Amino acid sequence: DTQNQFDADALTLNRFVMANTHDHDLVILMNAIATSCKLITSAVQRAGVAKLYGLAGEVNSTGDDQKKLDVLSNDMMINALVNSGVCAVLVSEENEEPIIVPPGRSGKFCVAFDPLDGSSNIDCNVSVGTIFSVYERRPGSNGTVEDLLRNGGSCLCAGYVAYSSAVEMVFTFKGGDVHGFCLDSTIGEFVHTRNKMVFPEDGGKRIYSANEGNSIHWDQPIKDAVELFKSGEKAYAARYVGSMVADIHRTILYGGIYLYPADNKSPKGKLRLLYEGIPMAMIIEQAGGIASTGMFEGKIQSVIDLVPDAIHAKCPIIMGGKRDVQVVYDQYKKAGVDV
Ligand code: P6P
């Protein structure tokens, strides 16, 4: 038959990481992350049957009501990473404090993650995701939270998993290309399916993605940019899932811009730097896009350059292709802001 159902030489995640890094510990780490994401896939897809919808009765570091799936996904991620033997420090959106791995099982990596990002959508079966960033212990460090309180320039690897009609993992190594892997449930492996993801050359589809419910709180240049998206000779489409992984994945593949700006209600924005801002910024920029904060603490900054002052530090996010981020920059320039 024309469609080759079986690839005798499937490029699995492990093979890809080994071939591109020759770092056995990184192979073990990515395998541990992949294993926990397979477990999360199973939990998310069986949530209705296994009665996993609803609240767990706790509140997390963001003040969100924790869902049963938040707690389960977090436990699976922590157990996989602690027992991988290659991690020293873990930071999770679901844990107020960092997790220091006991010396007997400690290793060189420090991982920050949101195990189930967008989980407020889970009970109505809208896509959710896992987001992670990987740092290495600083020379001489046995693994402390300071190893993670560094800007995105020190981030070794960043990735996300989209739990949707398909389960896709996207990640990039520092300075490398962005690659996509689909979970082939018949063999339980993430298999390489997207080689070198890049923004469409011409900026791609005209799509803007923001929670306009906040728009009265935005600063004027952001309001002006979004109005321009709406009123240009080719009006943009509005697409907002409310799950960052879904919105960012679509933005890279189709084009457009995702905005969660600072505003007078939330001067540091809403999204978290270590496990949303930095990993997504690294992926977006290495796919040829721009990851800006917009106006943040008095100037326009690059998300990658921000140094987290705490593990749950927040940052504003304006991420997308050059064509559309430039529209935002132009509004700041008109307002006399150095860009
Ligand atoms: P809002 C989910 O809670 C999240 O962290 C991102 O996944 C998502 O893009 C954003 O917050 C949604 O926030 O305020 O629009 O509900």
Automatic annotation (TrEMBL):
<dbReference type="GO" id="GO:0042132">
    <property type="term" value="F:fructose 1,6-bisphosphate 1-phosphatase activity"/>
</dbReference>
<comment type="similarity">
    <text>Belongs to the FBPase class 1 family.</text>
</comment>
<dbReference type="Pfam" id="PF00316">
    <property type="entry name" value="FBPase"/>
</dbReference>
<keyword id="KW-0460">Magnesium</keyword>
<dbReference type="GO" id="GO:0006002">
    <property type="term" value="P:fructose 6-phosphate metabolic process"/>
</dbReference>
<dbReference type="GO" id="GO:0030388">
    <property type="term" value="P:fructose 1,6-bisphosphate metabolic process"/>
</dbReference>
<feature type="domain" description="Fructose-1-6-bisphosphatase class I N-terminal">
    <location>
        <begin position="12"/>
        <end position="194"/>
    </location>
</feature>
<dbReference type="InterPro" id="IPR044015">
    <property type="entry name" value="FBPase_C_dom"/>
</dbReference>
<dbReference type="GO" id="GO:0006094">
    <property type="term" value="P:gluconeogenesis"/>
</dbReference>
<keyword id="KW-0479">Metal-binding</keyword>
<protein>
    <recommendedName>
        <fullName>Fructose-1,6-bisphosphatase, cytosolic</fullName>
        <ecNumber>3.1.3.11</ecNumber>
    </recommendedName>
</protein>
<keyword id="KW-0963">Cytoplasm</keyword>
<dbReference type="GO" id="GO:0046872">
    <property type="term" value="F:metal ion binding"/>
</dbReference>
<keyword id="KW-0119">Carbohydrate metabolism</keyword>
<feature type="domain" description="Fructose-1-6-bisphosphatase class 1 C-terminal">
    <location>
        <begin position="205"/>
        <end position="330"/>
    </location>
</feature>
<dbReference type="Pfam" id="PF18913">
    <property type="entry name" value="FBPase_C"/>
</dbReference>
<keyword id="KW-0378">Hydrolase</keyword>
<dbReference type="GO" id="GO:0005829">
    <property type="term" value="C:cytosol"/>
</dbReference>
<dbReference type="InterPro" id="IPR028343">
    <property type="entry name" value="FBPtase"/>
</dbReference>
<dbReference type="GO" id="GO:0005986">
    <property type="term" value="P:sucrose biosynthetic process"/>
</dbReference>
<dbReference type="InterPro" id="IPR020548">
    <property type="entry name" value="Fructose_bisphosphatase_AS"/>
</dbReference>
<dbReference type="GO" id="GO:0006000">
    <property type="term" value="P:fructose metabolic process"/>
</dbReference>
<dbReference type="InterPro" id="IPR000146">
    <property type="entry name" value="FBPase_class-1"/>
</dbReference>
<dbReference type="InterPro" id="IPR033391">
    <property type="entry name" value="FBPase_N"/>
</dbReference>
